[in-house]
Amino acid sequence: MNLEKLEKGLEKIYQSLLSHDPINNPQLSSIDKRYRESAINLYRYIILRSMDIRKIQWRLSELGISSLGSGAGYVLSNVSNALMLVKLLHGKSWEKDQNPVTIGYMGSQRLLLKHVNALFKSNKKVHYTKIMVTMPDEAAENLELLKELMVSGMQIARINLSHGDITLWKKMISNINTASKTLAHPIKIYMDLPGPKIRVVDIISSKKTFYKKKKKNGLKINDGNILFLQKGACTSQNDKELLDGDSKIPKIIVSLPQIIDDLEKGHRVFFDDGSIEAVAIAKSNDGIKIKIKHAYKKKLKLYKGINLPDTTLSLPSLTKEDIELLPFISKYADMLGYSFVRKPEDVTQLYNELDKLNNTSCGVVFKIENREAFENLPLILFEAMKNRNIGVMIARGDLAVEVGFERVSEVQNQILLLCEAAHIPVIWATQVLDQLAKKGIATRAEISDATISGQAEAVMLNKGPHITEAVIVLKGILKRMSSHKLKKKSILRALEVAKNSLNKINKYGL
Fold first, then answer.
1. CB-based contacts of 348: which residues, under 8 Å, 6+ apart?
2. Taking the alpha carbons of 398, 403, 409, 411 in that order, is the dihedral positive or negative?
């Protein structure tokens, strides 16, 4: 092996990290002091991953030297240690540069634990992956169900504010607190902001009109069908007008008609978690015509979600409804989930609203559920680290549709690594043990998925008639995996999200 070539390659990486180091950057002064070391390490990680260092990685592995890929939480220390060992093998001595902010492995673990305790309001000396459970409506009445969930291993109760009302949520909270007190089992309450969820709210056609009168009905569709996303709500008065001229094309009314202004010809449109894929083929002042490319489900039903992965939306991430719910969340929740966050300005807006309520204690979890949020994740993290008690949720439902099902595994891994570099706790969410919770038996694939979820600081289970069994199984998996987690060696090709983030960070000012 050519040690000289390996040494030069590592020196190039090391000097690149030092030359771009943000330690003296005045923008860092705006980062909360509790996250300053983490922000520096995240920046170093982005620089490292903007390079293709696969050949160096292979040579280090050949020598038995620690992988650069396993040191996301302590980048400079890991690179400098690898360089020092290669120099020693080459018969050279070397002293590291005296750098005021160099985090080692143990230091990175201490920072992560500190941030985990801040988010989850705990004081643990060792952290194990927590279990979060979405509360079914039944939790408002069934105290015994909540006791069963707590005894089985639930540590965080999730209330989805997209469903129900304040009366229902207060009953849930009352029962959660009663069960927690009775069992002496501490429970944290997490609430999701609804956010600007785009849904189908009405469907009309020449044959059947006003599907909202028959909620179980849906529009039969096949590949090649043409639909029209119509601006404005439908009423009996304008029904005939909408159908005139193109009466065979069904009209789809969406919950947020302003998205139609952002849609352009050629953009993809997904319905129902990606089970129906369409493409925009023509645009007019009244709406946009779409063509069904793949109808994996043969009916489009009301209230199903819509994803627009190619469209930059002008919608606010924080809606009027979200802002109106913040006083309720501030009073009752330990953590809130920020739905559909897309850019750092969204982070600023939320904290401005929380500051108006003098809420400095509520944890904030940034839900990464669309392509724009993933591509802006480093900037979102930098902006979030100006504040306190933060975390990230990998919301794989919408995210899989936005980035493509074939890429969701790769993307969730990159999110885990970026958050590891920032020492930010992660919640692994959507469809974990979903079949077990709903049908009482798990698939082999979801057991494997649950095993991988132990890399996160918390795992979210959705509701279902067999949710207690799902909690028991997940607890067992997480307990077993915690005793022998294995780090995979990464070959470390350059990441597009890292390269793109460097340009954005420079423009953003860090």
1. 383
2. negative
